[in-house]
Amino acid sequence: MSSSSRPQSRIQQRNREIILDAALEVFSLHGFRGATLDQIAEVAGLSKPNLLYYFRSKEEVHTALLTGLLDTWLDPLRAMDPAGNPMQEIMGYVRRKLDLARDFPRESRLFANEILQGAPRMRDAIEGDLRLLVEEKAAVLKAWMDQGRIAQVDPVHLIFSIWALTQHYADFDVQVRAVLGPDHDPYSEAGRFLGTLFTRLLER
Amino acid sequence: MSSSSRPQSRIQQRNREIILDAALEVFSLHGFRGATLDQIAEVAGLSKPNLLYYFRSKEEVHTALLTGLLDTWLDPLRAMDPAGNPMQEIMGYVRRKLDLARDFPRESRLFANEILQGAPRMRDAIEGDLRLLVEEKAAVLKAWMDQGRIAQVDPVHLIFSIWALTQHYADFDVQVRAVLGPDHDPYSEAGRFLGTLFTRLLER
DNA sequence: GTCTATACTCTGATAGAC
DNA sequence: GTCTATCAGAGTATAGAC
């Protein structure tokens, strides 16, 4: 099944993936400006001109990474079902968000870097899709509170707190592990802790 | 009163401060590698060679910023008094940490950038002073829990959660404001929300 | 103390051989 | 598709006039 707009051989797709993986590694550590094509090419095991054969510019590589990232990042929130059991839905969201942080820490750091720098390449998405989704889900949370099914608390800041607490384990991984020492599994401990925290915050 | 090791005129001290303030602005936005001396010099209103008259290198400017940052950042935790009232001490800590985020967001982002990048220039401090202080204060929290004065919860992750929740408002400021819209004061709302959260989590 | 000029290296991107 | 060679510009840092 070939696309007329962008025919791609298997090797092309494979190399694009290798490059994007290397770029994720480098951009997530150093941000857009701090990252260099030399570094990305080295991690990818390609020459710099060859990298630029697959992507026209540094900017294009970065854009390719950001495209879709926000969607992936928001999917767990989207999955929160207004018709479901409130406590289960919220706990499921926390669980899925923590799993994302554990399984895709580089994506989390890429996102953190982008926001830290003032979201120069994501502003529109954040002021658009992200804001709308938060408003929608905050309304769902508010309804649950007004029905007395969970405790009253600011629903938007509740969402912020889920983001902050889960992403912290990916973004500040170095610090978390330095403090805990080698004999700990940050994410399983975090799972238990966050379970307790949100239960006590929301259960009535 | 002159120091023999580093005599400094008033104008020298003043210029060093101007440079450090400009550097904080730029480093906190772009990280070490993404920041340029040109940018820092421009923000400082000085020529690049003049900047390098006050600091021998880009590295030296960055080091000057990081030195002392961790201390400032940990001071509120240090102030948590084992002899005080547990609930008041913890709430006071959360309050002071949130005030730090509100009043010194650039410092918070500088720190976040450093950790995101793997803490290449702060590893020792984090594995040393920071870790020790957390261990000490976690023991204090544990004692309060065992005395039944606050609810049982993992004390180290409790400290992580205070960091994550307060720093989020500085580090993800752009996102927070984009979601809340213009008619909100993020920090006063956060103050109320975090008061509720930690009360419900810890009160028995 | 501050500036202009400049040395030298790094970085993004292109040309062209294979 | 991949490589070597290379260019133009940006970057850190220094020299030396004032």
Write up what this structure looks like.
2 copies of one chain form a homodimer. Helix content of chain A is 76%, strand content 0%. The first copy, chain A, is globular. The first copy, chain A, has 11 helices and no strands. The longest helix of chain A is centred in the N-terminal third of the chain and has 25 residues, at 10-34. Chain A has 2 domains: 3-56, Arc Repressor Mutant, subunit A (Orthogonal Bundle), CATH 1.10.10.60; 65-202, Tetracycline Repressor, domain 2 (Orthogonal Bundle). The first copy, chain A, is mostly helical. Chains A and B meet through helix 1, helix 7, helix 8, helix 9 and helix 10 of A and helix 1, helix 7, helix 8, helix 9 and helix 10 of B. Chain A binds a DNA duplex (18 and 18 nucleotides) through helix 1 and helix 3.
How would you summarize this macromolecular structure in one to three sentences?
Two copies of one chain form a homodimer. Chain A is mainly alpha-helical.
Kindly give the count of domains of chain A. Answer: 2
Strand content of chain A: under 5%
Q: Tell me what the CATH architecture of the largest domain in chain A is.
A: Orthogonal Bundle
Which class do the helix and strand fractions of chain A yield?
mainly alpha
The radius of gyration of chain A is: 20 Å
From the structure above, extract its key features:
homodimer; 204 residues; 2 domains; Tetracycline Repressor, domain 2; DNA-binding; 11 helices; Arc Repressor Mutant, subunit A
